[in-house]
Every structure is written in structure tokens, then in C-alpha cells.
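Annual report, structural modelling task.

Input specification for the guanosine-5'-triphosphate complex:
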Amino acid sequence: MKIENVRNFSIIAHIDHGKSTLADRLLEVTGTITEREKVDQILDDMDLERERGITIKSHAVRLLYTAKDGQEYQLNLIDTPGHVDFSYEVSRSLSACEGALLLVDASQGVEAQTLANVYLAMDHNLTIIPIINKIDLPSADVERTKEQIEEILAIDASEALPVSAKQGIGIENVLEAIVRRIPAPTGDKNAPLRALIFDSWFDSYQGAVVYLRVFDGTISKGMTVRMMSSGKEFEVGEVGMLRLGLVPVPELPAGSVGYFLGSIKQVSDTKIGDTVTNADHPADMPLPGFKNVKPMVFSGLFPSTGSQYEHLRESLEKLALNDSSLTFEPEMSEALGPGFRCGFLGLLHMEIVQERLEREFDIALLTTAPSVVYKVIRHDGSEEYISNPARFPDRKDIEWVEEPLILASIFVPSDFVGGVLKLAQDRRGVQKSLQYLSSTKVMLAYEFPLNETIMDFYDKLKSATRGYASFDYEYIGYRKSDIVKLDILLNGEPIDALSALIHNEKSYYRGRELAKKMRQLIPRQLFEVAVQAAIGTKVIARETIPPMRKNVTAKCYGGDITRKRKLLEKQKEGKKRMRQVGRVEVPQEAFMAVLQVE
Ligand code: GTP
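The model returned the following structure:
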């Protein structure tokens, strides 16, 4: 196919505005999938994704469409993850395209993530086609949605396309608009190869399957390619296009989207955003925008029984094969024994990994409260990045500490602004702007310390706004901050896995609340347990858990043995998530309690 007839595009949308439904319709109308093949929303092909309704990783698919001008076009749809944790991947996917469909729910209007992703698309000079979805809903307000697109995003919405992805209304118009409005890719077929990696995944038979967009030159079977960020070289065993599966072709010229295989053993060799070039005839410069993404949130993962340690290691290795942003290293906790310190892009990424370990690999996990990475500068001038509270140096050695900051944009109906301002203040937020987008909608920009937003911030924001607020953020760097380590002691023993790093201003209050919370969460034992909170050597709070009085089975009025057994079984089940720490049994919730105290 001629390059003039190729269109590369993605879909930008806020969660639940209908991206997967629209993608599905496009596949259907172009005959890419038939009714029989249709699985609920093809593009989200991981179970977990479907359940959470979040597109986690990018995927791509090639559609063939005969337009009204009688010509056949090749449309490459590159899907993007819809969550802020994956914004780097979104930016790489967008830079593989010439255009983007901006999908807005007609009953919800523009939301925070839409804004962030539109800015990314504008940075990449993409042609943006506004589409107003869910026009079938009685609450749809197409005109107001158009106004919002113009006011908030400064995009001309006069030619916005009204559609109902669910009912299949207006889908042809979308396809025509893709063909007519989005420019064909350009690129020099004869220049040295430059292709952008926008996704990759691991196949146990073929090695890494690398998704790429060719900008210059041609990639073909048999060629030796070089990854420009690492210099590693691989022989191309196969190139192909992405239909519903992988379809080999002899070569992929400039402008096209497809994949290649090269017996690559590790996905970490196929970094998203990297440039693939021809090893024998390399390009001078890589494509712009490559970043080595670093995890921002860390947490300790421990098997709830020691015998699962090896299984946990193997499972993490398997997950990391397909997720180059997941990092892990062995960690030895005095309280919890051997486990792993894992790094994640953000909280959602963390939850996904933990859930997959438990569900797919059947591991009962004990997880410690997530922490951000602090920069600690010692008196001798040395710098260290610390993500594990247990490794935080002694106060007397520290010159100063810096914490990571984010810039958040929050969209909220004007009725709820008061609640958000209060929450932001509680979380050490600094207001950067407050703007009325209409008489009913407000956009707030705030600087927050990242650690204040990983403490159930999103839930609090939702409950302060009855679920109407939307939130997005970007990292903006480090700032000096007065951070201290709060320790929890059980019967006089400090428990490393319960330590937390928090702002000094809040440390006394938090310490007291945390001790109270521990008293509620730790069940009575056969003996009295003293819970203490301490900063440095100073104990700031003490609570006492009185000893257990009765045997649990005493409730069963003697006789009924099956009930008794059931109760014991249940107790055993509960024990899975209990951990013997010294002499004290501590439940999983206690390790996360620091996230629950205000
Ligand atoms: P994420 O994968 O979470 O990013 O969501 P998404 O944007 O892909 O949304 P999805 O396609 O899963 O749609 C979200 C919900 O909106 C689903 O319940 C869809 O059935 C519904 N939906 C999508 N399009 C329409 C539409 O045109 N009309 C109506 N009434 N509902 C729609």
C-alpha cells in the first residue's frame, strides 16, 4: 500500500468515556473482527484490565477501510493507556501517530485526563478530531460539550462528530474523518532506519515482540538492528503487521506501524521510546523524547508464609518480563523476614501488580505501606535516594531531606470547591491557580508533595466531591522538606516494616493516631501488648492491647463440632494474612494503617 493511504492515529479519552467501545466499533465496521470473533472489547485483552475498565498497556491494530472516494486505506489504531501512571507510555504512543481522536462523553464533558492527554497530543503536533460520544443518553448535552472543548482545550469543535459508540451511530463519519483530516505519514524510505518502540511484550517462544513505528528507512527480515539507547544488537527474525494477531510481512517501510521479533530474551532490552536503527548503516541521531522511566512509589512485598519466597521471586521475574517499569530487589525485614522491595510507576501500577501476584500466581502477600523516594543529603555532602523507611539514616547524620513534588490538575463541579480546598490544605498543597471554566465547573492547579497524594488522596477527593472530581498529575522535581521517621514498637521492639516517613509537622498527631489504630487492628493476644509510637528515641504515644480472655470456640455452646471446625477453619484462613512479629500476631491491615490515619 502507498504511504499516502496510511493513517496512524490513537484515541484520547478520560476513563469510561467510551474508548474501548469506540475501538471495538471501528474494528467491527471495517470487518477486522466479525461478530463471532468479537470478545467484549478486544483491545483490552487482559482480564484485570477488563474488570477495572482501564486500558493498561498500549496495543495496536491495523484496519483496512474503503473510503467514500473509492480508495482503500490502511488505518493503524494505536491504543494508549488511560491512566496517569502511564503518561510516558501515552506520550510515546502519541508520537507514533499523526492524529488523535479526542473522545468526550456528552454527559460528562471534559475531564482532567482529557486535558493532560490533549496537551501531549498538541506537543506532538497531532491533528485532533473531536468526537462527542454517548449522544444516545438522555443527559447528553452536545452543545455544551462542544463549548467546553473550545473553552478548555482551545480546539475548534465546530466539526466535532456526534456519535454513540454503544449503538453504532456515526461510526462511518469517524472513519471518513480519519481518512480526510489526518495527514498521511511522511518519512524518507531511503534514509537510515529510525523506528520508535511504543510497546513490547514477552512471548515465551519468540522472545520480546516489539511494536514499532517506522519513521525513516525500512526494517526487514534478516537485518541486524541496534537499540540506540543501549547499543544492543539483534538480528530481525520476523517483521509484520498487527491485525488481531501478528501477521508476518517481508518489510515495514517508513510510515508504517508493525512489529519485529529478534529472539530478544528480555523486554528490558526493548525500552519504550527507544529508537531502532540499522546496525550496518545507523542513523546519526535517535528520535526525540526517549526517557528511562523510573519507579516513583515503592513498597515491600513479603510472602505471608516463608515457603512462598521462591515462588514470589519467580512470579515477580515473570511479571517483570512484560513490565519493564516494575523493579524489585531482595529485602530482609527483621519483622517479616525475606521479601522484595518493589518499585512502581504509581499507586495504580502497584495495585495491579499486587493483584496479579495474588490472583494469577496465587501468592498470599503481606505488603508494607507505599513510600515515595526521598533524597537525603548528609553532613558530609553525600546524597542518597531512600525509598525504604527502615533505611532512613539517623537524624543526627542528616543535613537536609528533599521530597518529590507533583503538579496536580483537579476538575470539580463548583459546588464542591470548598471541600477540595480543605483537602488540599490538609495535604500540604500549594494552590497555583483556580479557574472557572463555566458557571458549574472549576479547574484547580495545585502543587503537592507526592507522598501526601499516595495516602488515600484519590478516595478522599472522590468522597469530598461525590465522585465528580477528576485528577491528573505530573512530577515536577524535589523540594527541601522536614521529614522524620516514625517508628512503631510492639512490647518495646521497633518493627521495621511498620516504620513510616512523614512530615515533622504532622508527626506527633500521626504517631498518636497510628498507635490508636494499631490497638484496634492488632487482635488480643494471650498476653498484654504495648504499642508505642516513637520519633528517634522519643516515645510520643502509647496504647495497650489487653490480653485475650476467652477461647474463640467458647462461643459455640459446646456441642456442634462442625460449627466449631468451621470457626477454626475461618480463623486459619484469617491467619494467612497474619504475621508473627516477635511474639505478636500482626494482621496485614496494620502494615497499611499509616495510610488510614489523617
Ligand atoms: P477505560 O477502558 O476505563 O479507559 O474506559 P473506556 O473509555 O474504554 O470506556 P468503555 O468503552 O469501557 O465504556 C465505558 C462505559 O460507557 C461502558 O459501560 C460502555 O458501555 C459505555 N458506553 C460507551 N459508549 C457509549 C455510548 O455511546 N452510549 C452509552 N449510553 N454508553 C456508552
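The chain is about 25% helix and 35% strand.
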